[in-house]
């Protein structure tokens, strides 16, 4: 029987952590890009665009992420489309993240006083110019803390991708446990690694929120 040292276990978990970090970054960046597009649709003057974005957001917020992963991985297979686990995981988390980020940012845009819209319109600015030069710079200050805070949910959400066979930290924990028969040690280390990933993000979100609130009061 092969003996596994603590370092052997930790090394294997850290190797899998790379994929957790990569998947989180892809999901956050991709979700941010799609979410920004959804934001513009959500606040569009055209009702059809607003309704389309609203239904998209409600669909992804109102259904479990686990179910979305199953549909992306197994559902497309019913049509003869072979979807790799990494592609299904990245695509699903990107679309899921976009729905939440779009709503976070919409709330931040709506927090900008209506007078800013009216003042920029009186200067002859179009809708895109208003957003680019007046609204988004102000909404950005409000949006940073909740956006950073949501990134924690993305990191934790990657754990669900193990159900479709994507080997990230959680899946690696299961594999190592089956090989070592040391579940307490393995999952204890998994928990510590997740904490090491999420705590700095959560803490920075709280610090940013406090700083921005103080700056807003002083202003």
From TrEMBL:
Listed transmembrane segments: 20-43, 55-79, 85-105, 139-164, 184-202
UniProt record, GO biological process: amino acid transport
Signal sequence annotation: none
GO cellular component: ATP-binding cassette (ABC) transporter complex
Keyword field: Cell membrane, Membrane, Plasmid, Transmembrane, Transmembrane helix, Transport
Annotated ABC transmembrane type-1 domain residues: 17-205
Subcellular location: Cell inner membrane; Cell membrane
NCBIfam families, A to Z: HEQRo_perm_3TM (TIGR01726)
Protein name: ABC transporter permease subunit
Record organism: Rhizobium ruizarguesonis
Lineage, broadest ranks: Bacteria, Pseudomonadati, Pseudomonadota, Alphaproteobacteria, Hyphomicrobiales
């Amino acid at each position: 029987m092969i003996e596994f040292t603590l370092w052997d276990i930790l090394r294997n978990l850290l190797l899998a952590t790379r994929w957790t970090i990569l998947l989180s970054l892809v999901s956050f960046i991709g979700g941010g890009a799609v979410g920004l597009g959804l934001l513009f649709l959500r606040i569009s003057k055209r009702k059809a665009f607003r309704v389309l974005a609203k239904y998209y957001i409600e669909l992804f917020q109102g259904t479990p992420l686990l179910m979305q992963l199953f549909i992306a991985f197994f559902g497309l297979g019913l049509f003869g489309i072979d979807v790799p686990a990494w592609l299904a995981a990245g695509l699903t988390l990107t679309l899921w993240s976009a729905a939440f980020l779009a709503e976070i940012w919409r709330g931040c845009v709506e927090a900008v006083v209506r007078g800013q819209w009216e003042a920029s319109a009186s200067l002859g600015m179009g809708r895109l110019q208003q957003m680019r030069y007046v609204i988004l710079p102000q909404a950005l200050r409000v949006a940073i803390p909740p956006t950073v805070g949501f990134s924690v949910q993305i990191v934790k959400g990657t754990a669900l991708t193990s159900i479709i066979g994507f080997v990230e930290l959680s899946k690696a924990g299961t594999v190592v446990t089956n090989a070592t028969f040391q579940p307490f040690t393995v999952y204890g280390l998994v928990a510590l690694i997740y904490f090491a990933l999420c705590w700095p993000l959560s803490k920075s979100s709280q610090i940013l929120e406090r700083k921005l609130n103080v700056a807003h009061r002083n202003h």
